[in-house]
Amino acid sequence: MRTNIITKALQDIHFSIPEEILRMGFEERNKYGLPIVTTVDDGILNKVIRPKVIVDCNLAGGKMVEIDLERCPSRRSPDGTIIYNIPKDFTNGNSIVTALSVYLGFNTPGFGMSTGLQGDGMLSQAARAMSGTGGAPFTPYVELIGENTVAVKYNTLPATPGVLRAIVENNENMSNIPPRAWDIFSQLCMLATKAYIYNNFIIKQGQAELYGGVELPQMRDYIDGMSDAEEMYRELLKEKWWKVSFMIDRTTHQRFLRLKINPSL
């Protein structure tokens, strides 16, 4: 089997968590004793990686795109706000998760990475590198209001609608993430899996039964050690994933370096 970012995460999960624990957490059965989930891997993918980890990774560090709004269908609302519908062709088929800003100018759709950074010093410069603050004038109001639909409120209507900077989700299977970032993603998947098992085991731990041939007290002791998995997951997502997603994009990283040299850009 060819390894990708998802299979690497699953391999690491199986290497780090006992199979009995994984079967207890993900091998659900119906009232006839038949498995509801085909495999443990299916359960991890459908209950943890896709609905939790990939969604969080997209929100914390998706890809930045720049889209010429003049090329997008638009309509004016009664209060003067312009509503733009962004074709999926301009986002490589992906959905916009955050509308960052609009600057005046022209551009063609391009791709980069962004993480929604906040902070002071180097972090604020990194945020400017991705959101586009500084230089060209920006609109005071831009908001994502629907599927690839953005509302822009201009102070005064410019000659051209400008260029939208937005964050789009990563590819469905995170295939755009290079191998050097796989380890952080794998750690996120492992911690999220442990948090899921811990939270579900709390409900089951009052039942005096055996799971996978392991006595309940032994399993309880092991799972109690997962109690801080959710906190560790949040910390890793906040402290490392956004840095990784920022650094692996050459365009945004180069813009950040230019801001370091000349903050007035």
What does this structure look like?
- The chain has 265 residues and is of the alpha+beta class.
- The protein has two domains: 5-59 and 175-246, no CATH class; 63-169, no CATH class.
- Helices cover 43% and strands 16% of the residues.
- The protein contains eight helices and eight strands, in the order αααβββββαβββαααα.
- Helix 3 crosses helix 7 (229-247).
- The longest helix has 23 residues, at 182-204.
- The model is unreliable at 107-135 (pLDDT under 50).
Which features does this protein show?
alpha+beta, 4-stranded antiparallel sheet, 8 strands, elongated
List the helices and strands and how they pair.
Layout: H1 5-16, H2 19-26, H3 40-61, E1 63-68, E2 74-76, E3 82-85, E4 96-103, E5 110-113, H4 122-131, E6 141-146, E7 149-153, E8 163-168, H5 182-204, H6 216-224, H7 229-247, H8 250-261
Main beta sheet, described?
A: 4 strands, antiparallel
Number of domains: 2
Percentage of residues in DSSP E strands: 15-25%
What is the count of DSSP helices, taking H or I runs of 4+ residues? 8
Can you write the helix and strand succession as a string?
HHHEEEEEHEEEHHHH
pLDDT < 50 stretches? 107-135
Strands side by side in the biggest sheet: 4-8-1-5
Structural class assignment: alpha+beta
Shape descriptor: elongated
Distance between the termini: 47 Å
Overall mean pLDDT: 79
Tally of DSSP β-strands: 8
Proportion of helical residues: 40-55%
Radius of gyration in whole Å, from Cα?
A: 22 Å
